[in-house]
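INFO  loader      accepted 1 record
INFO  loader      residues=140
INFO  predictor   begin
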Amino acid sequence: MQTEYTVEIAHRRIQRSNEEWKSILTPEQFHVMREKGTERAFTGKLLHNDKAGVYACAACETELFDADQKYDSGSGWPSFTAPLSPKLIKKQDDYSFGIHRIEALCGCCDSHLGHVFQDGPAPEGLRYCMNSIALKFDER
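INFO  predictor   done
INFO  writer      dumping C-alpha cells
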C-alpha cells in the first residue's frame, strides 16, 4: 500500500550529526541504526506483532513496510517480503563477519535496518530481515 506521503518522503534526504542522532534515538537504537549493530534474535518487541498497520523507520519515521508483507521466517527477527516501495530501502554490500550479505538501510536517513536475504517466499524470494528496534509500528 503505497501512499502519496510515502512516495514524497522517499525522495527526501535526512542528514544529522551523531550528536543529533544520539538526542533522538535510545542508546540501543543508536548502536543498531547508526553503528550497524544487531539486536539479539528472538528479543525484539515487534517479532510477534500481528496487528494491521505500517512499520516505519524508528529514526526518521519514513513508512517502510505494510503489516500485510510481514511473515514468520523463524529467523528471530521481523521479516517482510517487500517494502512499500523499492526506493524506500537502500541496499549495499556488507562483508562484515567474513561473509557477503546485503545490508538494508532507510532510503531517507541511511539508518541500518537489517539485511535482505534471497531465501524468502515466492514470488520475489526475498526476506527483509529487520531489527525490531529499528522500526516503529503504527497500528491502522
